[in-house]
Design a protein that fits this description.
By secondary structure, this protein is of the alpha/beta class. It is built from 36 helices and 34 strands. The strands form seven sheets. An eight-stranded mixed sheet has the order 15-25-24-17-18-19-20-16. An eight-stranded parallel beta barrel has the order 27-28-29-30-31-32-33-34, surrounded by six helices. Strand 1 and strand 2 form a beta hairpin. Helix 31 packs across helix 34. It binds phosphoenolpyruvate and magnesium ion. Phosphoenolpyruvate binds next to strand 28 and helix 32.
Amino acid sequence: MKYVYFFGDGHAEGNAKMKEVLGGKGAGLAEMTNIGVPVPPGFTISTEVCTYFYAHDKAYPPELKDAVAENLARVEQSVGRKFGDKEKPLLVSVRSGARASMPGMMDTILNLGLNDETVQGLAKHDERFAFDSYRRFIQMYSDVVLEIDREHFEHELFALRDRVGADSDAKIPAASLKELVETYKKIVRERGGKEFPQDVHEQLWGAIGAVFTSWNNQRAITYRKLNQIPDDWGTAVNVQSMVFGNMGDDCATGVAFTRNPSNGEHKFFGEYLANAQGEDVVAGIRTPLPISKSQVTDVGASSSIAEKSLEESMPEVYAQLEDVYKKLESHYRDMQDIEFTIQAHKLYLLQTRTGKRTGFAAVKIACDMVDEGLISHTEAVSRVEAGQIVQLLAPMFDAKEKSKAVQGGRLLGRGLPAGPGAATGRIAFSAERAVSMAKDDPVILVRIETSPEDIAGMHSAAGILTTRGGLTSHAAVVARGMGRPCVVGAGNLRVDYGKGELRSEGHEPLEEGDWLSIDGTSGEIIGGKLATKPSEVIQVLIDNTMQPSESETFRNFDRLLKWSDEIRSLGVRTNADTPKDARVARLFGAAGIGLCRTEHMFFAEERILRVREMILARDEKGRRHALDQLLPFQQADFEGIFRELAGLPVTIRLLDPPLHEFLPQSEQQISAVARDMGWGFVELRAKVNQLHESNPMLGHRGCRLAVTYPEIYEMQVRAIYLAACTVKKEGIDARPEVMIPLVGTVKELTILTEMVRRVGAETLKANGVDLPVIVGTMIEIPRAALVADKLGEVAEFFSFGTNDLTQMTFGYSRDDAGTFLPEYVDKKILKKDPFESIDQEGVGQLVKLGTERGRGANANLKVGVCGEHGGDPDSIRFFRTCGLNYVSCSPYRVPVARLAAAQAELEFKHYEG
Ligand code: PEP
Ligand code: MG
């Protein structure tokens, strides 16, 4: 078993394809080494060791010690320094690196290998630098490995700064740093109960153990949960020889993206700090400077950008960096996120990975790369996470409203536009407050900077604002990953946690709970609420207030979805009950209606009265009379929908909910309705009580109602076909499909199918119109899935109602499960909320089996899904493997479903070979 993989001197034992074993960082280091990018040598301890570590009570495989020693020797040889050597000591970094990037969630240790002796070797070259590195190392190691709070060290550092009158760490003289090291060692002795380890090998193994252990710290666990990263992947550990970005003014460290991760613009984009160590940039402690000149002008408004770009301060290194980034992007054929260090004017790459990006950027980059001939249409489709595309539909601030607010003096300041989109919400100054306040109102999380502990708060916030940090700070990276509008580094604003205030000169301070608006596209911060307007895609597609030629975002959105359509075999329909929704869905590309719920049509003002009359009628005659009054309304509704969906199928579900849902419930409502209908209060209340059910979801509803009162469905069927006849005569192609809900036995289906066919045929004949009467059933009761072979002999189509199917298979009430399901997910009893994403193991098996049995009886059976799962990418992937014909989802999910269906197709084909 190979546990350790070397990289260095232009050759690596691993490569980019070995992410599972080497983690993302390790695989990137290996690949970069192999393609000739300058990388300091080192080695990666595989994720398999992490798995072993947790399976064996935190012990290592016996062969690991020798493997590490051997590889350390190779690193020593490569750089000409020895680990623990007094004269020329090798220093290393020890970093985590899982398969998926988890920024800042796990631990890192830099400058490892320093002790009282080796620091002298380093000091010969530069004493100040040597002791500065040593004190940083003691603090980091103590924090991560010895679990001694950082604060104790920072307290001493600040006290020292005061004493020597230094306004920054860089100004503390060498002699004082030497003293500080002694103080730090004393803290370790007192707080940790033993001496700071002087044995460099003990240091190394302590650090390796701490990185593996950090896989299971709370913030890593939360991050994995939010990002659906499996807990059993484990992390790798990268041990790499140190290069220093903090050795003087010809040194620097930075992070960069090969394209803009926020809007996708094709420009090299990044930030650096001169004379600093890697973590300083990501931690957002100092606001870094832009890499390129063009970036300075782009965000020129921000005060922190007044200083020089790397392009100006180190032009030769910048040119080299440009070569490297181009090489990496064309090698990986995707946007890269890189970390680099410059030591004495020499460039080293420390990381490359596929850059996280917003939905906007993902779509633009994919389309641009197609135009540049870098990737195919198919690759472009697989490059955009299906769920991310909804960002392109989200509202933005109305430009007029915004300029009014600005002119009215509400502009509090500007920061860097780190995550596009508009957000308005109440201010929360801590992650915990954000989580609790978000239950009532949208929240803007306002922080000086964010740290990995804040992710739960960031997740519940509508937008995020920080006053420090750059476009690659923690806040920016995480917000973009979550698709949250975000503004960072708003240097002219001051957050005072103590007073609970956000201050901007010339404005009243804002307090927690006050309204604030942030524009993550422009970086503006505006006091109070601000109205929004539809996104460009909506303006072009739905509102017709913008031309396609005016919106690149729309054009790219459209192209990507058209490429998806060429790939996918799964159809996408929509759930819509009104002509307006149907229109939106059609414009989004729905190929028909998969579920038109007819009960919603009964609630409008004039209709509900008739519905109540129908329910309260004393006999069939009375019911029929009330239904006759309802018929024209229903017919008009269907006509509207048929006109909107000309030529496309419209699946209409006959009445589903229990009747009591249409009746008043409180005494007050009962008395009002009694008055309107000319009933006595007591009499009406008795009727309401009589219809009351203990378990209405399992009660007299769906097809069961029609078995008792066939006249209800008869009226609906008549209305459907009358509407079809009317629009047919207008020359419009109406294609209704009638669907029976809540079927559990074949007899229910045969009785009702015969009725639908009879009434449908009569209506068509009376109007002289020829149209097929198509009848199908929902499969939403487990028994229906089990007897699908029998149902398939009668029905012309199946549509899985996975909402009810989930409810009845698990026995979880759809309306009440919110009280315990989050806990079930937390405790890993369930992987995900089964009402959000189909439970493949259980409910999904009923879908699979129902489809197979149904098709066994009728090979041409059309099968779809119309539960909420029809718009969930993971569920769509699963439905593709079941061989369904289509999914149906709400109008705004249609673009997501089109993209997800294409990706499902690619994966399915790949899997099938
Ligand atoms: C279902 O049960 O999945 C379904 C689509 O029907 P409804 O949500 O209306 O019960
Ligand atoms: Mg249902």
